[in-house]
Amino acid sequence: MPVSPARAAAFDILLRIEQQDAYASELLHARQYANLSHPDHALVTELVMGVLRWRSLLDERISAASSQKLGKLDIEVLVALRLAAYQLLFLSRIPARASINESVELVKRARKRSAVPFANAVLRKFSATIGDVATEDASPSQDRYAAVLTAISTATTPAALAQLSAHPFWLVERWVHEFGFDTAKLICLHNQSVPVTAIRLRDPSLENELRNAGMHLEPGALLSTARRILSADVTKTRAFAEGRVAIQDEASQLVALLVGHGSRLLDCCAAPGGKTSILADRNPDATIIATELLPHRARLLRKLVSASNVDVVCADARKLPFALPVDRVLVDVPCSGTGTLARNPEIKWRLSPEDLTDLHSRQLEILRSAMSHVAPRGRLVYSTCSLELEENSLVVEKALAAEPSFHLLDCREELQRLKNERELTVDNLESLLSGKYLRTIPGVLPVDGFFAAILEKT
């Protein structure tokens, strides 16, 4: 029995994620899958992201049906089992027989024929126990996905929340401590749902063009220049191909807007360039230096940001090869990405508490290096897409303690300015703030989790 192109592609992508620490968002748009039909590509995305979001829940159910410990299975066999388990649990429109048979074929395709009888037995036993995935009071006709999300909302302890929402316990426990149990639950629910795609309109006239191209749009949740896509694929439009519209989460857009205006700007760790593009659009007469450590990411940055006033420099932000004073700096540091788990669910299975300590040290080095390039009365915006204190306020506080010529500004003032200029559409500014810091919490707001601090040199 041949394996469908969609399931074969999903299997290959999941295997690369496991073996090479690759990222789903990049692999799903890789050139080798460009020829898949639209329905097949949609199914690949559903399978890959679904398996990654619910991996621990799938493994729990597979383990209950398996005669062997999952840690002893070849990774190819385990990935095939996860693919079938996700389809059996969540995709009721796909016949169980097809899910089982094709996953068994994937085991053969991976040259693990000795595991074929085992995989077949596990999946048939698994399939027979599907009925108890929903909550006890869920109606039989309720969508399976909705039933599992409902089960998450009934959790009353951090351990139950972690188990039901397929999150590592240590991560959920941190969020409960930092944000409270109810907010942690909202974060987990958000992470297990398909996030809305947001776009940035570089010209207001683009909206009519996109609608005429078949796009169904609604206003952004935070910004007047943002739109949320309800249906259709914006990447197939002429406006996207020409770079006149960009896919970018609204919280990410907001961070770039906090930088403001200047004559000379520095954007550290700039790739892939979404924020750089906003800086260039808002400062067309300024000189903008965008730095990136890795050569291939610097090339990507240059490709995606074609503005003539942006100079791309391949350099380590901790040791920048120039000493020019700049009046505006954006330091969007490499981080854990725990604010983006709805889009990058593989992160939660790779990250460990020890990683946060390493990230903190690197982020502090980058921030202090960038601070040395700020001109008197200049400003610096430090940002992450992380929810963790070690990467956010603790980095800023330590940097300020070592650099007395800087002080922390209140993000409220910049947010109010953006609101007065009708760029920010949120009525309740408190939902965007944690003290003097910008902090967007996924689930509380329908956006990714971002942190930002504004530092000024006195």
Walkthrough of the structure:
- The structure is a single chain.
- With 458 residues, this protein is an alpha/beta fold.
- It has four domains: 5-133, NusB-like (N-utilizing Substance Protein B Homolog, Chain A); 144-191, no CATH class; 197-247, Alpha-Beta Plaits (2-Layer Sandwich), CATH 3.30.70; 250-457, Rossmann fold.
- It contains 20 helices and 13 strands.
- The strands form two sheets. Strands 5, 6, 7, 8, 9, 10, 11, 12 and 13 form a nine-stranded mixed sheet that branches.
- Helix 5 packs antiparallel against helix 6 (96-109) and helix 5 (75-90) packs parallel to helix 7.
- The longest helix is centred in the last third of the chain and has 19 residues, at 353-371.
- It is globular, with a radius of gyration of 23 Å.
- The N and C termini lie far apart (71 Å).
- Mean pLDDT is 94; it is low at 132-142.
Short structural summary:
Helices cover 46% and strands 15% of the residues. The chain is of the alpha/beta class and 458 residues long.
Largest sheet: 9 strands, mixed
* CATH architectural name of the largest domain: 3-Layer(aba) Sandwich
Low-confidence stretches: 132-142
Cα gyration radius (Å): 23 Å
Number of strands: 13
Highest CATH level, the class of the largest domain:
Alpha Beta
What is the general shape? globular
Task: Indicate the proportion of strand residues.
Answer: 5-15%
